């Protein structure tokens, strides 16, 4: 089963790091990048996306706003909100939209739990 992951971050470098980190954990998963929330929504309208990894701090619309929109379109999609902004409020808001909080700087260890859970959910038909 081909899995497609959407990586959304306004920083090209952060998207590269996220892509490499994801590839180390799941090399067969396809990675698609978006530089902002609007581009991400456009991609989602045009093709099947299985997992989303979203930066919190972006211009125009933050990652939690985008995650909330994703929930209305894809209620069971595994979504991670990735940020260096480790505040209780941000973590609580991520939980409210049923997203996993992952802290930056992104590492294999930091991402492993989310990716393992996403893979399990996708294998069991949770999307």
Note the topology.
Blueprint: E1 4-8, H1 12-25, E2 30-34, H2 37-46, E3 51-55, H3 63-73, E4 79-83, H4 88-96, E5 100-103, H5 108-123
Parallel strand pairs: 1-2, 1-3, 3-4, 4-5
Helix pairs in contact: 1-5
Question: What would your notes on this structure say?
Answer:
- The protein is an alpha/beta fold and 127 residues long.
- Helix 3 links the parallel strand 3 and strand 4.
- The chain has a single domain (4-123), classed as 3-Layer(aba) Sandwich (Rossmann fold).
- 47% of the residues lie in helices and 19% in strands.
As a percent range, the share of helical residues equals 40-55%
Order of helices and strands: EHEHEHEHEH
Mean pLDDT: 93
Shape, principal axes of CA atoms: globular
The assigned CATH architecture is 3-Layer(aba) Sandwich
How many domain regions?
1
CATH superfamily: Response regulator
The gyration radius over C-alpha positions equals: 13 Å
CATH topology category name: Rossmann fold
Q: What structural class is derived from the secondary structure elements?
A: alpha/beta
Note poorly predicted spans: none
Which terms would index this structure?
single chain, 5 strands, Rossmann fold, alpha/beta, 127 residues, 5 helices, 5-stranded parallel β-sheet, 47% helix, globular
Concise summary:
The protein has 127 residues and is of the alpha/beta class. The protein is 47% helix and 19% strand.
